[in-house]
Write a structure and sequence with these properties.
Mean pLDDT: 88
Radius of gyration: 28 Å
Bound molecules: adenosine-5'-diphosphate, magnesium ion
Number of helices: 22
Structural class: alpha/beta
Low-confidence stretches: 316-348
Strand order of the largest sheet: 6-7-8-3-9-10
Largest sheet: 6 strands, mixed
Length: 585
């Protein structure tokens, strides 16, 4: 057995790395000369701040140009607690500074629920500018009176304070490591790739964004608090909007969602201006260098850090690739355990799981759906077909809650879904997949499946479902999986959520003919195997013919036929609607 496959190794190695880092920090604190120690503290503080950017920007894909404002909040709180002689000492003040910055992060994250891209950039940069003006006015507590921030007792000189900051870095890195591999981390990566996909997996987009902002800002707060202890008389000039902007660019360059690369970023942040100083070049030119490297990273889509990392570890699999969310001990009797819902045979088999009544959707003057009614009895596979533009995807969007203004009703097990959000509908047991790829490539197959399933799964259960759909092993990275197969993983993951009904929007798109046939055979087994009713939306009639005993046909937003497959496909209105569509002929 490979070392990396052993359970103790998998759960223990991050701690071992952290301890090793602290030991190296201790050696450096003894070995480095006075000025180098001071610079080394700056490397540590900026690494922590960049690590925070790695979450909000690198993982969650949001632009936040105010990281040093969060740092200023942390520094301000530490300075204020210092001046007021608050109990607990520096370490406690640092934690409170992080909490305070985290709360401010949530407040700044609120606009991010509505804004994206350049608009979010403007808002966060505006906040940084406003905070800088405010800070210029109110100053840091104690700074004008020369009341120095008291470092922790055991770590009062620069060398030992550096060691203290390395311990703080190790703690932050461990926290980030486990958060990134947990449910929050998966939600950050998912929301960066597709907000709709996140909601359809029953996760709140709002929570994903706000937790990213909160954790990122809290790390900024730790960095700021440490800076307060480092300089002892903090000043607003250490936390300007321009510095925040440069730090953001550096996070992009270094690929800061990876912890080692955040530390590499911290090193660049300190080293480049320092080298310029040694060469008698004004340090401000560092901004230009960061700018040029940033443009390179953004245009090429690769970052410096990743390139170096690839070069250093040319290995196919790293242990962290196998890490997952909520990893359970494999159950002894995994083969016999089955936790998925099964349809109760005693239940009224005619009771519909999903009922859609008079669904109407208008896009301006266009009636995309016009009074569509549709029923899905328990344990069945229903087909919804129609030519391109008939309104099939609009139907799924409306049913799954993405078109809240629609007319008509959608009932799940007789309960009106009314104005429920897509997230709430997914949690109730109404799941859907997408015609386009919505599977976040940053995750492993296993992390994605666990994220979508939203319930405890043992590894054997995941492996069985993946094998059933012919998907790659759980430990593979989704970025290495082709789009067609990714959509099969999406289907498997949603089935493992044990929903009441799963609506598949053109599941066969992107698959070869053979894969197509294999998928059809598997889908036929789904109601018995997983206890889930299916609605298959298809343009391609081959799949529908072999899987769906009953069909409903849409054309121009109206139901033109509904009933047993053979009757429906021979219906003259259906033949007419499909005229020119080669599959029918
Ligand atoms: P299908 O999935 O059956 O191919 P769609 O549901 O995507 O069809 O589209 C149905 C009709 O609604 C089409 O005429 C399409 O152009 C229109 N439509 C879909 N989405 C929108 C939208 N967001 N705004 C305006 N028109 C739309
Ligand atoms: Mg469609």
């Amino acid at each position: 057995m490979l070392l990396a496959d052993r359970r103790w190794f998998r759960s223990g190695w991050p701690f071992a790395v952290a301890v090793a880092a602290v030991a190296i920090g201790y050696a450096l604190s003894i070995g480095l000369s006075g000025y180098a120690v001071y610079l080394a503290i700056s490397v540590v503080t900026s690494s922590i701040a960049i690590m925070g950017l790695g979450i909000v920007t690198g993982s969650a894909g949001m632009i936040a140009l105010c990281q040093l404002t969060f740092a200023a909040v942390g520094a301000w709180i530490v300075a204020w607690l210092n001046v007021s002689g608050a109990p607990g000492g520096f370490a406690v003040w640092l934690v409170l500074g992080a909490l305070g910055a985290g709360i401010v992060g949530i407040l700044i994250g609120l606009p991010a629920l509505r804004l994206r891209g350049v608009n979010l950039a403007v808002v966060t940069f505006g906040f940084a500018a406003a905070a800088a003006v405010t800070l210029g006015q109110i100053q840091f507590p104690g700074s004008t009176d020369g009341i120095a921030v008291q470092r922790p007792g055991l770590f009062s000189d620069d060398r030992s304070y550096f060691f203290f900051s390395v311990i703080a870095l190790a703690v932050c890195a461990l926290a980030v490591f486990f958060l990134q591999r947990g449910r929050w981390g998966a939600s950050w990566k998912s929301v960066a790739f597709s907000e709709r996909g996140t909601a359809s997996a029953g996760h709140s987009v709002r929570t994903a964004k706000l937790t990213a902002f909160a954790v990122s800002a809290a790390l900024g707060g730790v960095a700021g608090g440490l800076i307060a202890g480092q300089v002892q008389l903090p000043f607003a000039t250490s936390f300007t909007p321009l510095l925040s902007l440069a730090l953001y660019v550096l996070a992009i360059i270094s690929g800061a969602h990876l912890i080692d690369m955040a530390i590499f970023g911290g090193l660049l942040w300190v080293l480049i201006p320092e080298l310029l100083k040694r060469w008698d070049i004004p340090q401000d030119w560092a901004f230009v260098i960061f700018g040029v490297l940033g443009v390179q990273a953004l245009t090429s889509g690769t970052n410096l850090g990743q390139a170096i990392r690839d070069l250093l570890h040319r290995r196919r699999r790293s242990p962290e690739d196998d890490a997952s969310i909520d990893r359970d001990e494999p159950a002894e009797d995994a083969v016999t355990t089955t936790t998925v819902a099964t349809i109760d045979p005693a239940a009224d088999s005619n009771a519909p799981v999903l009922t859609v009544e008079g669904l109407t959707v208008e896009f301006g003057a266009l009636k995309a759906l016009d009074g569509v009614s549709f029923e899905v009895p328990a344990g069945t596979i229903m087909g919804l077909i129609g030519p391109n533009g008939a309104g099939k995807s609009t139907f799924v969007d409306a049913v799954s809650g993405f078109l809240p203004g629609h007319g008509g009703r959608v009932l799940l097990d007789g309960g009106d879904l009314g104005s429920l959000s897509p997230t709430a509908r997914a949690r109730r047991g109404l799941r859907r997949t997408y015609q386009q790829d919505r599977v976040p490539p940053q995750l492993t197959v296993e992390a994605y499946v666990r994220f979508v399933a939203r319930r405890r799964l043992d590894r054997a259960e995941i492996d069985r479902a993946l094998a059933f759909f012919g998907c790659p092993p759980a430990s593979d990275r989704l970025s290495a999986v082709d789009v067609g197969t990714r959509r099969l993983i999406e289907v498997a993951a949603h089935l493992l959520a044990a929903p009441r009904v799963l609506v598949l929007d053109e599941p066969a798109a992107g698959l070869s003919h053979d894969e197509h046939l294999a998928l059809a055979a598997r889908l036929r087994e789904v109601p018995d195997r997983y206890g889930v009713s299916l609605v298959i939306i298809e343009h391609d009639l081959d799949l529908v013919r072999s899987v769906c005993p009953r069909l409903t046909v849409l054309d121009f937003g109206r139901v033109i036929a509904s009933g047993p497959q053979t009757e429906v496909l021979e219906d003259p209105a259906v033949v007419k609607a499909y005229m020119g569509e080669t599959e029918m002929l």
